[in-house]
């Protein structure tokens, strides 16, 4: 993208038409400011992929213009891509104290903490990059220390909300700065970027206070151990668990690496108050009477290797869920995780535990961190933007958010429903969506970043559904014919034992096929391979309805 | 299982601790009666599996005792296993007229219709098998002609509810026979088997009448084409669509094989009334003005190959969704299908369609066919059983259903939460769960039934996540050493192009490994293979964090 004089440009490298890998950018002439750099977890169709991060090639090509990465809050879908970003771009990272704590954990893991330039900000900070200055406002979400921000540009003010809800009685002092929001709105907002996660949900988000009351009640009723699973980063909920444990005179054990790490960061940095001596090691659990024990663990999304899942199947060394124990799932399943979560609930019921669970807020043990329609309308009302880009959501959420904006008075045609990579340019007060920059998914598989692409995935899909058949042909170089009978090896296809007949027939067919290749083509091993693939493929499909990958290998001797 | 004198035995071969593949059995001495024979669709972990049916080996071993298969209704999870059952056991199948229509479609597809013994029953039928007689009662569900049944045995009466809800204003004349239910309860029920699908949901199931009103409203508001997707077998909902089309003077096209087939069965057999000339061929859609067209299609579960999905991506030949068209999803997503459904909704929004959707009954376009807690309590209250076995549900549902039963007076300890294969024996009025018969999953993959097992699936999983690397070693028989450099072929692992260096190093390592195998072991190709697998496996894991399947192939020359 060449320099666009007097032009303010807004685009996303991730977060539009998806939930995850949020990464937004604001460019004014030669200064690019990045907001967030998240990851996304793959769905089942992306076989074997560990992580998805934004394609950052546009930023790499414009390295010298990228001034800063500003982070709204510490959730994975906002910080998970940072290590990969910093390996490619040497840019300072600005975030609040708690968010920085989580980023540091990540950078340490990737062994790039020392060389990274991390800068702590607060909601009172002011930054300037070229002709753009940035200031901040507090918002409430499901993790401490969240920011929204205002970019003051020569074209006008651009507001990015971050992830937010309004909660007038949050668990800790995490109120949104509603007065500052009102001021910003009064000053005038050219463009609002607001998150859309719950744009489909009518009403207002229930208060976190409700959760506290339900947690207290469950702890009081429990006769034995209480095990509660939630997101480690939801520190105010963790605080409520600590408080309930204190009130019922229980010690608290932490299970799961991220729970231990995040609680440590939160305590160190003053976001979590835990009475001296309350936290015990998991080895001490069995030394205490069950009614004196509470356990806080990871795995509320049903992740198969996390603590809760292992507890539910009796595979957590040294800690056991017993009949009569109380197990609380204090988190809503993220779409796609429902089955894994219900599997755990079923296992816990099988053990005989008293399981408190439920989708959404039906159990009273969870409220969403994202504003419902009334919250979104309050933000829109406070901001009264001229232009609106709904962000952080899938298409239907963006569309519903557009309708909400129009309902509070944003003019039809002034909302831009765009894709990752689409650029909205604003010049002389007029916004237009005309051009695109490169955007997309980069797959992280093992330690490889971007080394797995569509072909590899297509192969994996075929292998996963029908397996494969390797055909080894030992051919004489001089005589152009088979020296021995072909060898076949199958994996993931059918049981060898039960399919001996089938494979015998296949071997005969291979010999026949190879012998029938016209003499003139026998010089080309490629032609022989094609013939074998085709005839064996057809034969297997007609006999088994399966299409294994067929790999002919020719050995010349 | 040897003959159990004077003993009534109840067990399931499918349907307990799962949703799907329902198959229950009642045995009195030497007479076994089967209720339903369903299938289940695999989740993503069962790579490439098309279908799951109950393991029927117990029935095959006791062939001569199996008297009848009685079918409650025509949903896949109750009839989908019948073709496989009839290929193994020659047993008469009893079902109502509509259910038989759907079973016939299946048997025709499997080319075994002619030799099958199908017997039509009604809710007034009475059957006798040995010392057990069976009579029936109508229930309301989301498909026509559903039955529950009473088994009158020397030990007492056993009631099987089938799938049911109570709806006092159903769309067609599909009322439950509540008076007969009351009589049965008055006579005395020894054991109740009742379905548990919605045992977690408080309240009562809303009436199908509500859906009719919402469908009418949407049709009236629509300015262009209306496209509605629902389960083909939900004939009363189809009738509501037909009625709405009639009221708004629209012709109706049917898209999707199962929609066409089921509507045909329903019309032929008098379950669906369609005005003469209303149904048009899909080729005629574009000849009519859009406000004169309604389309009824399959794919409400987001199935990628079904009509709705293809419409949403512009891949349905000859039919196009245009901006301003109304698309209604009149079915709730079955757990696990949420993502596929929302993907379609997003695509339709992208096109610019007016999409009416929503989980559960939030859009007013869908009500469940399964009774909520109050419905289940009404059934329990009418039956007042001595013993209770909650069926048709996952563990948490069975447990919640147990609590409901206890709340209306079933004694604690008289509810049996059992697994597929667990047998409850009743003798002299006392029920005990003591023994097991064989039960489990049989996988159908392509045309193979049971030829894919855990090893094949494990291979597919490894292949799907990390791909594979084939190592071809050409070894001299006499000299026990490599004749040429090793050849490697990878699929689904990493891009060859980008990993040339890696694969070069691998080749070197293979040579080194083979050469270093101790002389004494070189006679055994197996040992060489083991060494190669191990050293290459370690090398690749440490360099890529991936564990591809490594397949060494030795060619002797």
UniProtKB/TrEMBL annotation, chains A, B:
Residues covered by the Metallo-beta-lactamase domain: 20-214
EC number(s) recorded for this UniProt protein: 3.1.-.-
Binding positions (substrate): 232-234, 366-370
One CC-aspect GO term: cytoplasm
GO biological process: mRNA processing; rRNA processing
Binding positions (Ca(2+)): 48, 50, 445
UniProt keyword Nucleotide-binding, yes or no: no
Keywords: Calcium, Cytoplasm, Endonuclease, Exonuclease, Hydrolase, Metal-binding, Nuclease, RNA-binding, rRNA processing, Zinc
EC category name: hydrolase
Residues that, per the record, bind Zn(2+) 1: 73, 75, 77, 141, 163, 392
Keyword Nucleotide-binding: no
Entry's localization field: Cytoplasm
Chain sites annotated for binding Zn(2+) 2: 78
InterPro entries on file: Metallo-B-lactamas, RibonucZ/Hydroxyglut_hydro, RMMBL, RNase_J, RNase_J_2, RNase_J_b_CASP, RNase_J_bac, RNase_J_C
Co-factor requirement: Zn(2+); Ca(2+)
A UniProt-annotated Pfam family: RMMBL
Cofactor: how bound: Binds 2 Zn(2+) ions per subunit. It is not clear if Zn(2+) or Mg(2+) is physiologically important. Binds 1 Ca(2+) cation per subunit. Seen in 1 crystal structure, it is not clear if it is physiologically important.
Coiled-coil spans in chain: none
Major localization class: cytoplasm
Active site annotation, chain numbering: 195, 370
GO molecular function: 5'-3' RNA exonuclease activity; RNA binding; RNA endonuclease activity; zinc ion binding
Subunit structure: Homodimer, may be a subunit of the RNA degradosome. Unclear whether it forms homodimers or belongs to a larger complex. According to probably does not form homodimers, while shows homodimer formation. Both reports show RNase J1 and J2 interaction, probably as a heterotetramer shows it is a component of a possible RNA degradosome complex composed of rny, rnjA, rnjB, pnp, pfkA and eno, while finds no evidence of an RNA degradosome complex.
Function, in words: An RNase that has 5'-3' exonuclease and possibly endonuclease activity. Involved in maturation of rRNA and in some organisms also mRNA maturation and/or decay.
Family the entry assigns: Belongs to the metallo-beta-lactamase superfamily. RNA-metabolizing metallo-beta-lactamase-like family. Bacterial RNase J subfamily.
Protein name per its UniProtKB record: Ribonuclease J
Native species: Evansella cellulosilytica (strain ATCC 21833 / DSM 2522 / FERM P-1141 / JCM 9156 / N-4)
Gene: rnj
């Amino acid at each position: 993208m060449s320099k666009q004089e007097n032009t303010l440009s807004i685009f996303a490298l991730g977060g539009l038409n998806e939930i995850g890998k949020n990464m937004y950018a604001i460019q004014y002439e030669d200064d690019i400011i990045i907001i967030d750099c998240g990851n996304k977890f793959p769905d089942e169709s992306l076989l074997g992929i560990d992580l998805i991060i934004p394609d950052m090639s546009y930023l790499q090509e414009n390295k010298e213009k990228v001034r800063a990465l500003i982070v709204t809050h510490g959730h994975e879908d906002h910080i998970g891509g940072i290590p990969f970003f910093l390996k490619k771009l040497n840019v300072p990272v600005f975030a609040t104290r708690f968010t920085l704590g989580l980023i540091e954990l990540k950078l340490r893991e990737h062994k790039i903490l020392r060389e990274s330039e991390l800068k702590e900000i607060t909601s009172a900070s002011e930054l300037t990059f070229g002709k753009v200055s940035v200031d901040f406002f507090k918002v409430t979400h499901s993790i401490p220390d969240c920011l929204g921000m205002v970019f003051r540009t020569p074209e006008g003010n651009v507001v990015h909300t971050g992830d937010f809800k309004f909660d007038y009685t949050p668990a800790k002092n995490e109120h949104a700065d509603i007065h500052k929001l009102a001021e910003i709105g009064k000053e005038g907002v050219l463009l609002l970027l607001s998150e859309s996660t719950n744009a489909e949900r009518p009403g207002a988000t229930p208060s976190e206070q409700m959760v506290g009351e339900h947690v207290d009640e469950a702890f009081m009723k429990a006769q034995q151990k209480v095990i509660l699973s939630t997101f480690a980063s939801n520190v105010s909920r963790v605080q409520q668990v600590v408080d309930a444990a204190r009130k019922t005179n229980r010690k608290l054990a932490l299970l799961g690496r991220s729970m231990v790490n995040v609680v440590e960061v939160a305590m160190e940095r003053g976001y979590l108050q835990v009475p001296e001596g309350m936290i015990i090691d998991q080895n001490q659990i069995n030394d205490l009477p069950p009614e004196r024990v509470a356990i806080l663990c990871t795995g509320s999304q049903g992740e198969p290797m996390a603590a809760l899942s292992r507890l539910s199947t009796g595979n957590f060394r040294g800690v056991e869920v017993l009949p009569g124990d109380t197990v609380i799932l204090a988190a809503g399943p993220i779409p796609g995780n429902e089955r894994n979560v219900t599997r755990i609930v079923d296992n816990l019921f099988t053990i005989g535990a008293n399981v408190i669970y439920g989708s959404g807020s039906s159990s009273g043990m969870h409220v969403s961190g994202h504003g419902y329609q009334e919250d979104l309308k309050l933000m829109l009302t406070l901001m009264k933007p001229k232009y609106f880009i709904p962000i952080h959501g899938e298409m239907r959420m963006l569309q519903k958010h557009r309708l909400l904006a129009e309902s509070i008075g944003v003019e039809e045609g002034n909302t831009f429903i765009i894709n990752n990579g689409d650029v909205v340019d604003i010049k002389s007060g007029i916004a237009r969506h005309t051009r695109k920059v490169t955007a997309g998914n980069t797959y992280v598989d093992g330690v490889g970043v971007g080394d797995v692409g569509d072909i590899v995935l297509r192969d994996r899909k075929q292998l996963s559904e029908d397996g494969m058949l390797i055909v080894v042909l030992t051919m004489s170089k001089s005589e152009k014919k088979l020296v021995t009978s072909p060898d076949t090896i199958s994996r993931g296809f059918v049981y060898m034992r039960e399919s001996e007949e089938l494979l015998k027939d296949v071997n005969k067919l291979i010999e026949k096929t190879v012998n029938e290749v016209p003499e003139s083509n026998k010089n080309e091993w490629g032609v022989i391979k094609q013939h074998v693939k085709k005839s064996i493929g057809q034969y297997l499909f007609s006999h088994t309805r399966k299409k294994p990958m067929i790999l002919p290998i020719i050995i010349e001797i």
